[in-house]
């Protein structure tokens, strides 16, 4: 069940999420001045959210979990630093400086090729904060926390080489994953299950039960649905369903960057609250990807294209999915797991419903989708993977449940990640 936090806390953390997303706008250096106007509430978090998005896009690793790790490290440092702010009139200036300093230092360490842009963005932020002890102490807190989180995460096994540790494909057998057309690429993301989580005790902590037996009614229903609706030349899939499949075919990290920014931008919380939202969202997404890999490579379930072409249920060697199948096992679905975690964090810390917002997708140029609830993103992810012909509905639904479980664990243990002070959130069990 999606989490629900106390209503009094949702506005604060909503602000955290929205502010984080605007950080990608280009920053122009400006001279520091004691009389410079203070930044508008939330603008610094949004500026550095956008700076993070721009940096990750420009210096992207080939593995999603590595890019998610970059987001998590920068924003955990920002949240910790901002939460150090003392009370009093300088609290907001301290938090803004701390967020900018922490994210800047983490990104420079993780994407050194972007230093010039990041230095310019930091100069612009600090130029808008009145000089004084609050600014100086915030900058120092950010630098200290960035260094600390980078040291904590050193050697965590979430680099591209570790993520794609070679996997020995089992002998072909009914139900067992094999490389898929077109290309029959080797398995990817096997090493994610061996990476060090942020908060999970073990990769298998919330491992789902096994997928349906090949002679079960549920398995036959799953296969029939994918065969009919996920075929490249389906006669039953509607244009709207095809558009949904294409829209959500892109990577989860990219597709959820806009929704999270909406959440952050609409928040009225402090910089510390907003930074905490971004940090928890991405820590949960990393742990979710670790848990997903554990499930996939425990059950090693074949993909629909293999089942339909070579299985015992009305085999059709010529069947083709609408979209090319990713090179890893079916169960559970990684897109659905990511969506379940994202919805759980946003429902708990922002509230399940918001004013209408539009998002775009790199795999569906020119298409804009409108949503009013985070659950709508999850629903479309589940359907899209079936209509793309690349997942069974059972794999999608198991993925959502796994993501929810991991995110609930993240929220229950937020103070372990972010330090004392608490979010005041008591997720339901």
UniProtKB/TrEMBL annotation:
Keywords, alphabetical: Signal
Domain Phosphatidic acid phosphatase type 2/haloperoxidase: 288-412
Range of residues in the leader sequence: 1-31
InterPro entries in UniProt: PAP2/HPO (IPR000326), PAP2/HPO_sf (IPR036938), V-haloperoxidase (IPR052559)
Superkingdom field: Bacteria
Gene3D superfamilies in alphabetical order: 1.10.606.20
Name by which UniProt lists this protein: Vanadium-dependent haloperoxidase
Species of origin: Streptomyces katrae
């Amino acid at each position: 069940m999606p989490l629900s936090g106390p209503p009094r806390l949702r506005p604060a953390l909503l602000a955290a999420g929205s502010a984080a997303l605007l950080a990608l706008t280009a920053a122009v250096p400006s001279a520091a001045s004691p009389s410079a106007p203070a930044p508008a509430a939330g603008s610094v978090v949004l500026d550095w959210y956008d700076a993070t998005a721009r940096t990750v896009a420009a210096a992207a690793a080939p593995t999603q979990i590595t890019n998610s790790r970059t987001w998590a490290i920068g924003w955990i440092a920002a949240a910790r630093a901002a939460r150090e702010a003392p009370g009093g009139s300088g609290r907001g200036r301290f938090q803004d400086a701390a967020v900018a300093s922490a994210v800047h230092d983490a990104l420079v360490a993780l994407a050194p090729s972007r230093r010039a842009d990041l230095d310019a963005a930091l100069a612009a932020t600090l130029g808008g904060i009145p000089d004084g002890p609050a600014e100086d102490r915030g900058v120092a807190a950010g630098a200290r926390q960035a260094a600390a989180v980078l040291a904590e995460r050193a050697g965590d096994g979430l680099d591209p080489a570790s993520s794609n540790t070679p996997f020995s494909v089992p002998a072909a057998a009914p139900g067992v994953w094999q490389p898929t057309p077109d290309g029959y690429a080797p398995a990817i993301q096997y090493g994610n299950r061996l990476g060090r989580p942020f908060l999970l005790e073990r990769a298998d902590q919330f491992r789902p039960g096994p997928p349906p037996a090949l002679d079960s009614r549920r398995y036959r229903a799953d296969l029939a649905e994918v065969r009919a609706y996920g075929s490249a030349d389906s006669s039953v899939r509607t244009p709207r369903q095809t558009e949904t499949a294409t829209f959500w075919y892109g990577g989860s990290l990219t597709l959820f960057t806009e929704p999270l920014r909406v959440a952050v931008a609409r928040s009225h919380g402090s910089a510390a609250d907003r930074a905490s939202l971004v940090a928890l969202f991405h820590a949960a997404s990393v742990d979710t990807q670790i848990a997903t890999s554990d499930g996939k490579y425990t059950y090693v379930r074949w993909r629909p294209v293999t089942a339909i072409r070579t299985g015992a249920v009305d085999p059709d060697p010529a069947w083709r999915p609408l979209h090319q199948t990713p090179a890893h096992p079916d169960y559970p679905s990684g897109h659905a797991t990511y969506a379940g975690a994202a919805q759980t964090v946003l429902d708990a810390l922002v509230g399940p419903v918001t004013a209408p917002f539009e998002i775009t997708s790199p795999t569906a140029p020119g298409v804009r989708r409108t949503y009013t609830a985070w659950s709508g993103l999850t629903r479309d992810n589940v359907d899209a993977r079936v209509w793309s012909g690349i997942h069974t509905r059972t794999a999608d639904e198991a993925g959502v449940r796994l993501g929810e479980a991991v995110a609930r664990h993240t929220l229950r243990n937020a103070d372990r990640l972010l330090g004392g002070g608490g979010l005041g959130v008591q997720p339901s069990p």
